[in-house]
Every structure is written in structure tokens, then in C-alpha cells.
Specification:
By secondary structure, the chain is mainly α. The chain has a domain of 66 residues. The chain has 4 helices and no strands.
């Protein structure tokens, strides 16, 4: 059941990985921060899995759920306010916006 909904949630990606495929990129991705991002991800995943059993013992499950729900709301706000819309925007224009520092621009008219 989980895998069916997981596949549906990825839209047209269907059976592909969640990762970005190199063949879909026009040129090789920069290699500067990928190791840092992976290290950051692994450290915080390890912290969460080590702290979670303690949280379950100390707090009621409802409070833990509210905490993680609040974190998801903050993530949603961050994405809506800080992550640029890229649907229908050429890569060159996205790169130009990022270089100028105005990455968060209104979505193009449809």
C-alpha cells in the first residue's frame, strides 16, 4: 500500500529514482557542495534516529506529532518564500537570476 501511494506522489517520475539523473542535465552538475550536503543529511538523520526513542519515552506521542507537523509547516513556508519557481523557465534564466541574487521571482505567466 505504501509503495503505491509513494509512486503516485512522484507524479510523472513513476518508476524512476528520486535522485536527479545526470542524463537530464544539460551539463555536468557542480561538485562543490554535494559532499557537504550528504554529510549534513547523514549527520541529522543519525541525530534524529538516536534522539527519537528518548522523545517517545519523555513526551506523549501527540506532542511529538505536533512538533514534526510544525517542522513540516516551517518547511512549506521556506519553500514557498525562498525557493524559486522553475516551471517553464529556461535554465539560462534561472542561472542568471541566481547570479544576480534575485532567484525568488514571480512565476512566469501561463
Amino acid at each position: 500500500m505504501y509503495l503505491r501511494f509513494y509512486r503516485l506522489s512522484r507524479g510523472r517520475a513513476g518508476r524512476r529514482d528520486l535522485g536527479l539523473h545526470l542524463r537530464d542535465l544539460p551539463k555536468p552538475p557542480p561538485r562543490g557542495g554535494s559532499g557537504t550536503r550528504q554529510l549534513h543529511h547523514w549527520i541529522f538523520a543519525a541525530l534524529l534516529t538516536s534522539v527519537f526513542p528518548t522523545l517517545v519515552k519523555e513526551f506523549a506521542p501527540g506532542y511529538i506529532f505536533l512538533f514534526f507537523s510544525g517542522m513540516m509547516v516551517l518547511q512549506l513556508l521556506w519553500v514557498k518564500l525562498m525557493v524559486p519557481e522553475t516551471k517553464g523557465v529556461p535554465l539560462e534564466q534561472i542561472q542568471h537570476r541566481l547570479m544576480r541574487g534575485t532567484a525568488v521571482a514571480p512565476a512566469p505567466p501561463q
